[in-house]
Write a structure and sequence with these properties.
- This protein is mainly α.
- The chain has one domain: Four Helix Bundle (Hemerythrin (Met), subunit A), CATH 1.20.120.1760.
- The protein is built from ten helices and no strands.
- Helix 3 packs across helix 5 and helix 4 packs antiparallel against helix 5.
- The termini are close together.
- The relative contact order is 0.11.
Length: 241
């Protein structure tokens, strides 16, 4: 029943929506270009870190450590401070790869730690949000008709969607398949989280609901993508669903 639901209803509609995004120019083909420009803007910071002898691993660990500090601020209701710290953590995550390349220190283990660190950082911030909404959600949002249980649910849904999005790519690449499609990858999730934290509780609530919906949608996009490229192989469709 579940397999049939995925095969005939959910995945075709996800594929249709993805196609409509492309038709209307919403295919975020410029995401890599934006990232390249951001890295270009941060080249002076990379050069300074390299001059000071700071290692790429040190930058990665610094970003992870700061994400925990930011999560503690968020859990205690200091959303703006948490957003600023998330910016710092995100910048560290942006420059560590460039620093590794500039120093000739690109390693498989470094890439592994970078990816794991991304998941740890996301987990830290989402955990901070769970504690925040458990402590402050009921009193702050009752006038909007939202209790803290509902908000915690959306945070957990956003966390699950984010992890599933990342896992599908990792699993696909482990099988030798390319899987970089999706409307809401980690950079977009982080940017939205920063906006929500900096602009306060009401905006943060909207951001969390949006993250929950779109991260799960992105996960399904990737499942549809893998299904499409694997079913092109003879006999593979029966083994998938």
């Amino acid at each position: 029943m579940t397999a049939a639901l995925l095969k005939f209803i959910i995945l075709p509609n996800v594929g249709y929506c993805t196609g409509r995004f492309r038709e209307r120019g919403y295919e975020v083909a410029g995401k890599s270009e934006i990232r390249d420009r951001l890295r270009g803007l941060l080249d002076p910071v990379v050069a300074l870190c390299s001059y000071m002898g700071i290692s790429p691993m040190g930058v990665t660990l610094f970003g992870i450590f700061f994400s925990f500090i930011g999560a503690i601020y968020v859990a205690n209701g200091k959303l703006f401070a948490g957003g600023i710290i998330l910016i710092i953590s995100g910048l560290a995550d942006t420059i560590d790869g460039s620093l590794a390349r500039s120093q000739g220190k690109v390693t498989t283990f470094g890439a592994f730690i970078d990816s794991v660190g991304d998941r740890v950082s996301e987990m830290a911030y989402f955990t901070g949000l769970v504690f925040y909404f458990m402590r402050y959600g009921q009193s702050d949002f009752t006038r909007y008709g939202q209790g803290n249980g509902t908000l915690v649910f959306f945070v957990l849904a956003a966390l699950a969607g984010s992890f599933l999005t990342s896992y599908t790519r990792a699993r696909a690449e482990g099988l030798g398949l390319e899987c970089t499609v999706g409307v809401l990858e980690r950079p977009e999730r982080v940017a939205l989280m920063i906006v929500g934290l900096i602009f306060g509780r009401v905006v943060l609530t909207a951001v969390i609901v949006f993250l929950a919906a779109m991260s799960i949608f992105t996960f399904l996009q990737r499942v549809q993508h893998i299904r499409k490229i694997t079913t092109e192989k003879v006999g593979d469709s029966d083994s998938v669903l």
